[in-house]
Amino acid sequence: MNERTITSRHDEWPDLLDELGPLASPSLLHLQGRRLPDQPLFAVVGARRPTIAGLDAARGLTKGLVEAGFGIVSGLAAGIDAAAHETALAYGGYTAAVLGFGLDVDYPRRNARLKRAIAERGTLVTEYPEGTAPRALHFPKRNRIIAGLAVATLVVEGGAKSGALITARYALDANRDVFAVPGSFRNVMAAGSNELIRRSEAALVTDVAHIFEELAGEVHEGPVQLGLEPVRVDLPDDEARIVVLLDDAPASPDRICRELGLEVGRVALGLARLEARGLVNRRGPGYEITTAGARTRAGLVGSMV
Fold first, then answer.
1. Residues 102, 128: contact at Cβ < 8 Å?
2. pTM for this one?
3. Helix or strand or coil: residue 304?
4. What is the secondary structure of 12-26 as a DSSP string?
5. Do 178 and 43 belong together in one domain?
6. 19: domain range?
7. What pLDDT does 259 receive?
8. pLDDT tens digits for 4-22?
9. 68: left (phi over 0), alpha (psi -120 to 50) or beta
10. pLDDT in tens, 124-155
11. Which one of 168, 183, 216 terminates a domain?
12. Strand, helix or coil at 43?
């Protein structure tokens, strides 16, 4: 599907890749799919194992960026990267996936279908020839291309030593704007984005309008809100208390029992009912709140004040 190799001598070569500050520009790119566009690209990167809140933030912000005319560039990894690519395609936008391996390699396998969709409707990008397997040392180099193609980078969750943080550092080195979605201090997957904000290396974002204000003032009419509209739901007392207690960091049933002073059986029954209603989600050994649960919690808390 329209595979080609370009260098800085080709008119398709992105000028931004020659403006990486102290980083070395790639000598060539292997491409598959559409021509790299002239429209500005925004990098959206984050954790491979994100929370539900992280996925919601990535999808909501990506949708707003696409509607404002940005293309989306990311790394085709599981988690936030995949959510950004999928959202861009779902809303008719452009997306480029930068790979740390050859164009003929499907990695991760769960994203093989997404990779084919990007090859058809967006662009696959790599500096590695066909047959090159994914190796750990390839991905930091890949990340400089993600940062280099984009006018700015958004980090949605990422550990303190994650690839998303490497991409953000490369963007800063290239004098590009960096934005980050804050997360719970208990969520280890938000440690990196929170640290970027703490160090004033990234602007805090909870609404896509914050990005537009930072980049170019009034460039978007009507902010796309990430805030949750409260929903009033009548819940039994045990279930209501569990919903109010939970957050984005998974909590074990034992922890919920201790904090609420409830018996194990009552907590187990409440969690089962809440999960059946889609208000909580089991994640490993614990439970975290879903978007519907967060809306319900907002309604419950609002009724208490």
1. yes
2. 0.77
3. helix
4. TS-GGGG--TTSPPP
5. yes
6. 4-216
7. 86
8. 999 999 999 999 999 999 9
9. alpha
10. 999 999 999 999 999 999 999 999 999 999 99
11. 216
12. strand
